[in-house]
Amino acid sequence: MKRLFLFVLLATAIFSCKKSNENWQQAAANPEFLRRTQSQLTESIIHDIFAPPVSSRIYMYSALAAYEALAAGNTNYQSMVGQLKGFKKVAKPEAGKEYSYPVAAVRAYLTIGKNLTFAQEIYVDFEKKLEEDYKATGIPSEVYERSIAFGDSIAASIMNYSKGDNYKQTRGFRYTVTQKKGTWVPTPPAYIDAAEPYWSKIRPATLDTSSQFMPPRPYEYDMTKGSKYYDMVMDVYNTINNLTEEQRNIANFWDCNPFKMNITGHAMFATKKVSPGGHWMAIVTQTSRQLKADIYQTSEAYLLTSMAIFDGFISCWDEKYRSIKVRPETVINELVDKNWQPVLQTPPFPEYTSGHSVISGAASVALSSVLGDNVAFADSSEMQYGLPVRNFKSYKDAAEEASISRLYGGIHFRPALDLGLEQGRKVGGWVITKVKTRKK
């Protein structure tokens, strides 16, 4: 009888330990840890006022770091080593040791984000709360510390990879505005210099070349009445002059201009906003939560979406600084109506093609490949700027509205939207064909 009692006691203890282990592993794998970290990174990017292409680089490397940490501990997912341009190696966990790969992933994401942004003080309270919440899961201290160290190793690998993408080299390149008729010049109110004119020199994640998906040639400058170019200009002018309330709401919702400047007398100050890429990363956060995606699928969605956005900006900026097309505001003020103003502030780079159209097309294709084609969702990402929630039938639906918003904002001609959306979809399609996250 005594032996039976001891056996039952031992079995109960083993079962309790196993259940306890399963409990903390499950708690530490809560995808909200990763979603919170992604949102925190966006706050830092907004604070530092990065140009939209630069923001896309930060998101992509951060998402890659998280994904690689998770893939190391899940046999259903495979590394991006050998799949991305120039990505040849990544840190590996120590054999025979126990890790929480989700903890390592969040650590890697956060570490890359901190390394690529400036405002380190923004992360202090966040990191403290993150650590408290992890320890509240019951994770053994040695497993936690080992997982944190592995996350740091992954981050070091990704930082090393990032150093070969030409970002540092392009910081010193100078750009001269051409005086040719119909080409881009800085616009009111701040007349900011051209943003990232050499972004096409950045190493893509998957594209063969930055010009791989070059769009059709834009209309030649010709303000003769009845010309295609003239009609295109007047389309913007008349649209803004007859804008409906709903069209204005759409324009404001998708503004996503981190460069917006306000002038009061002699004072000038910035209104900080989320970038186009940041808006789409927020959509990933919202819809992965809505669909109850686990941390692996959530990370996969962040990775492919950010990669499509990153390559989308490279493709778009390649064309912008090839054709160097003038903005509607410049042409209309000069030749149609000197007092005319767009609804949105014109961003500081050439018109063709539309960056928001390209990256929205790319992001919608990539995100659909992970979370589904017809995911209806309510987008609340702009509520912090006083804008209401907007509802969409699908990611494709959201991308199309993001694109047309630039016409309603008065900052793009229609061809740059339609052809930009097409360009972006090609980029997104290429990314999901070129990169395989799941093992067969």
From TrEMBL:
Keywords: Oxidoreductase, Peroxidase. InterPro entries: PAP2/HPO_sf (IPR036938), V-haloperoxidase (IPR052559). This is Vanadium-dependent haloperoxidase. It comes from the Bacteria. PANTHER family: PEROXIDASE-RELATED, TRAF-TYPE DOMAIN-CONTAINING PROTEIN. It is an enzyme of class 1 (oxidoreductase). Gene3D superfamilies: 1.10.606.20. Transmembrane segments: none annotated. PROSITE patterns: PROKAR_LIPOPROTEIN (PS51257).
